[in-house]
Amino acid sequence: MIESLFVNTLNENFDSFFVIDVREEEEYNIAHIKDAMLAPLSEPLPAVQNNGKAVVFMCRSGKRSLIAAEHYQVNNQSETVYNLVGGILAWQQHGYPVIS
């Protein structure tokens, strides 16, 4: 199951989530969330070691990350995954910290 996750929920419960950023490296290098794993949608998804944390996919606005979450869900059917609504744009609009 793919569920929507809002940025305030991610920020408030950050340690409960394993964040996968599916933007391209150039986008990631401009601004990304601390500890987010870079896994561009244009490349095969590497093995995910989420250490029991819920997996949340993110991108610029939430569209590419939804595609990635769907692909991940097909290969990990028993696991609920999350798509970050609004992506890095929403994260920054809320004033949450980024690494740049």
Q: What would you note in describing this structure?
A:
The protein has 100 residues and is α/β, with parallel strands linked by helices. The chain has one domain: Oxidized Rhodanese, domain 1 (3-Layer(aba) Sandwich), CATH 3.40.250. Helix content is 32%, strand content 20%. It contains four helices and five strands, in the order βαβαββαβα. It has helices at residues 7-12, 25-30, 63-75, 87-93, and strands spanning 2-5, 17-21, 37-38, 54-58, 81-84. Strands 1-5-4-2-3 form a five-stranded parallel β-sheet. α3 links the parallel β4 (54-58) and β5. The radius of gyration is 12 Å and the shape is globular. It starts with a strand and ends in a 7-residue tail after the last helix.
Topology:
Elements: E1 2-5, H1 7-12, E2 17-21, H2 25-30, E3 37-38, E4 54-58, H3 63-75, E5 81-84, H4 87-93
Parallel strand pairs: 1-5, 2-3, 2-4, 4-5
Question: Which descriptors would you attach to this protein?
Answer:
single chain, 100 residues, Oxidized Rhodanese, domain 1, 5 strands, 32% helix, globular
